[in-house]
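subagent[fold] <- orchestrator: predict structure for attached chain, return tokens only, no commentary.
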Amino acid sequence: MFSMQRDRFSVSFFKVWTIPARFRMPKTAKKEILAALAAMALLSSASFAQPTEKPGHIGVLLPLSGPLAPFGQKALRGILAGSGLLEKSPRKGVVLHIADTCGDAKTAAAEAKKLASEGVTAIIGPLKGDEVKSAGEVANSLSLPLLALTPARESTGGSVFRIFMREEEEVDALVGYAVEKLGFRRLAVLFPDTPAGRNYRALFWESATRRGAAVTASETFPPNAESLEEPLKRATGVFGISLAEQNASLERERQRKLALLTGPREEEPAPPPPEKPSAKKKKNAPEEPVPQVDFQALFLPVTQSLKAAQLAPQLPYYDITGVRLMGLRSWNYPDLVNVGKEYVEGALIPSEWSPSTAAGALFEDKFTRGYEEKPGALETYGFDAVSLVISKGALAGRKELLSSLASLREQEAVTGPLSTAPSGEIPAIPSIMMVQRGEILPASEGPQ
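subagent[fold] -> orchestrator:
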């Protein structure tokens, strides 16, 4: 007899997508879904009730219904691809117990208890911070390893781990590429006036100065702004004074003081006063001062790729050219190049993974063969999470897996190499992508 509790079910030894039926199935799985269900029916209802630990049984705790369902489904697809259960010769010894949090913290805790009672050796998920906190309390009380896929940083500790890209690694990799690979020494940042924007600005400034680069402009703008006119003009000296003008003014003052001390020298006549830069004449417009661009790259930490694409054309509109844009991981979507077009060409973007690495190429191949489309960030985290859990002890037991995850060092992975911090965080190591000829490609594959 086959027993199912709401959206809960087990997956073992066969190619299968998921339930409910509204989820998208890969074409390769459709022909085998009836066989998969028949195979699941062989699992007795007692298997859900036995509290004994079952090596190889892994819990998956994700929002598979409600507003967060699209995100949960993405992570689940990555988990299924990494589990080996979608292969022609499915991995043996692995059973996935999949539960729906419904996007609710209380439900997440209740489902975590049920998964523990089913004997799983680990839980992968959830996504939301409050769900991770409630499910994590259950996991900690049972010494049950839980590997969350969440940006919430306060949720780790004890038996709870988190695999995700931290903002400090994201920004440092971006600045490192600009400074060390491209040789840039003068950088600027325009950031939205939000807690996240201010945090990104602080991380950017710290990374740049640590690497010996100068931040020559730092300006803010309202988070809902559609125009960057004022911050761009402030950054380039159209409002106020630019760095170049400031340096020239300081040099003139130094020369004036030197002349007072030493007196005029006949052989060195005083230089004529510097000419004002000629203003660019615009059609049907009064003369305006020419921007003094004192930076080689501009960091624009806006989280929406579409908004970044809409803001990018404003740089050449305000006569700011020859500057490389730098963005966030959230720019790594087709919207950026579809809307931004030539204005985002050459933009640098941190990414959770790159197909140019050996692990990334293998992941992309497995995923596209199963789903016939390219993976995104959540699929990547799901893939790495289940791969880690299986390779680091899930087939042995909770104790072995807990020890292995806590001592993880330089583990090869799609988002890695991965190491576990004392806090329980397993930070993803960013790859740098670049917009090249209208595509977002690994920066290492394109012209510098």
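orchestrator: received. Logging for downstream: Residues 243-262 form the longest helix (20 residues). The chain has 15 helices and 14 strands.
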